[in-house]
Amino acid sequence: MHANEREVYIPRGKVLGGSSAMNFMAWTRPSDAAVEFGAWAKLAKSKAWGWKDLLPYFKKVRSPTTRLHSLTPAQCSLLMAGTFPLSVQSETFHAPGPNNLDTSQLYDKSAHGHHGPVSASYGPYMSTQFSAFFASLVNMGIARATDLTDGGPGGVSWSASSINPSTHQRVTSQTAYCKQTPLFHVTPTSVLIDATCGAVWERSGAHCGVTH
Ligand SMILES: Cc1cc2nc3c(=O)[nH]c(=O)nc-3n(C[C@H](O)[C@H](O)[C@H](O)COP(=O)(O)OP(=O)(O)OC[C@H]3O[C@@H](n4cnc5c(N)ncnc54)[C@H](O)[C@@H]3O)c2cc1C
After folding, report:
1. Which of 7, 33, 38, 53 lies 20 to 30 A from 70 at CA?
2. Is 14 close to ligand 1, i.e. is its CB under 6 Å away?
3. What is the pLDDT of residue 72?
4. Is any atom of ligand 1 closer than 6 Å to the C-beta of 200?
5. What is the Rg, in whole angstroms, of the alpha carbon atoms belonging to the chain?
6. What value does the mean pLDDT take over residues 55-68?
C-alpha cells in the first residue's frame, strides 16, 4: 500500500524456526520514541501499544508447559495481563564479557529477561573495522546508546546477538521452544515438513486439523 508502486524484496525463512533460522541475530528493539512505538500507540489510539506497556511482553511468554485449554477465563485474563504466575521470561541475557579489543560495552540489565530459553549474548570478537566506525560516529557527536533494547532514543552501540554463548549456536524459535522446552506437550502435535497449510480447522474453539 505504501510501496509507491515498487516491488519490495521480503525474504522469509520457510523452514522450522521460520525467519529466526536465517536472520542476522541482532537482539534489538524499536525505541520508545514518537516515530517508533510512540507512532504505533498513536495509530492504535491506546497507550497499551506503547513501549512501557509492551516491555513485559518482550520479556515474557506463556509457560510452555501450561495446558492452555485447561485455564479458566479468569486465569486467561491474568495471562493476557501478564500477571499470571505461570508466565515465564523468554530471554536469558548474558552481559558482555571480555573481547579481543578490550572494548567496554554498555548495557541495561533491567531491559532484559533472565530466565528464558532464548539466549542473548555478545560475541568475544570485535572487528577492527567496526571499532573504527564506532569511534568515528562518536567523534561526529552521535550519542553512545546504553542498550539497543532499552527503548532509548538510539545512538551507536554494539548489539547483542541471539546466540547461545555456551554452544556458540544460533537460537531459533525451534531450538528455543521446541527442543529446549516441551512446547509440543501443550497439545498432541505432529510436525509436517514441506507442507503448506491452506486452512486450520476448529471444533468447540480448539484447533483440530489442517488442510495442506
Ligand atoms: C534476512 C533477515 C534478517 C533478519 N534479521 C533480523 C535481526 O537481525 N534481528 C531481528 O530481531 N529480526 C531480524 N529479522 C526478522 C525476524 O527474523 C522476524 O521478524 C521473525 O523471525 C518473525 O517471526 P514469526 O514467527 O512472526 O514469522 P516467521 O519467522 O516468518 O515464521 C513463520 C513460519 O510459518 C511458516 N509458514 C508460513 N505460512 C505457512 C503455511 N501456509 N503453511 C505452513 N507453514 C507456513 C513459515 O515457513 C515459517 O516457518 C530478519 C529477517 C530476515 C528475513
Report:
1. 53
2. yes
3. 59
4. no
5. 20
6. 58
